[in-house]
Amino acid sequence: MDLSTVIATRSNKTIYRDGDKSIKLFEKGFSKADVLNEALNQARVEETELNIPKVLEVTMIEGRWAIVSEFIEGKTLSQLLSENPEKSQEYFDRLIELQIKVHKQRCPLLTKLRDKMFRKISLSEFDSSVKYELQTFLNGMPRHNKVCHGDFVLSNVVITPEDVPYIIDWSHATQGNAAADAARTYLMYLLVGRKNDAEYYINTFCEKNDSPRKYVEKWLRIVAASQSVKGNKDELEFLSRLVNVVDFM
């Protein structure tokens, strides 16, 4: 395989282009189970109505796991935004419309979001009383079975030259409550200091989805606790504040 053309670099992985293939190469020691689960998620979502790159194979390259998928020619919404900052609302509107389409899909074999969140809370460093409160709160939230991407941000949507959107990076996909998925997107923009984008996103998502903002915000405590497990020290203080908010005004 040709690994001379780097598309992107992420934590613990590098993505290359080899002709009409995309190769996601993980660092040595990366969890085999996580690699296989990501490929399985992607393969399962392929069976929905969404445009996503097809998995071609899972292999090893010089002792490192790799997922080989179709390469989708185009630019991400994030790249388009950097080139056309005046079109920010247009790109976020498109992101939200696609996310709502994702939530209309069903994929019964995906991991349940509730189970994943419960497990993440258990792994967090919050004290036992906070964990118990969060898990009790989680159990009381409405149970849905909508496809949730888990990291639905501008950089994970590729727009082809024909203006066809493709959604990439299904490593965090689950089935569950769409409001949790929206809360996760909102949190991602708050964490990188893009407050205006975060506010436009959540207000527009709630308007287009006919959902009260407060309903989405109720999930922030859960997704913040889940995010804390990643161990980014720069985020912990902010995430802890969200976890300890009882209600959002």
Descriptive report:
With 249 residues, the protein is α+β, with helices and mostly antiparallel strands. It has helices spanning 32-45, 77-83, 88-103, 113-123, 128-139, 178-191, 195-208, 213-217, 220-228, 233-243; strands spanning 6-10, 13-18, 21-26, 55-61, 64-70, 75-76, 146-148, 157-159, 165-167, 174-176. It has a 5-stranded antiparallel β-sheet with strand order 1-2-3-5-4, with helices on one face. Strands 6-8-9 form a 3-stranded antiparallel β-sheet. A two-stranded antiparallel sheet has the order 7-10. Helix 2 (77-83) runs antiparallel to helix 3 and helix 4 runs antiparallel to helix 5 (128-139). The chain is globular and about 50 Å long. The chain starts with 5 loop residues before the first strand and ends in a 6-residue tail after the last helix. The model has no long low-confidence stretch (mean pLDDT 96).
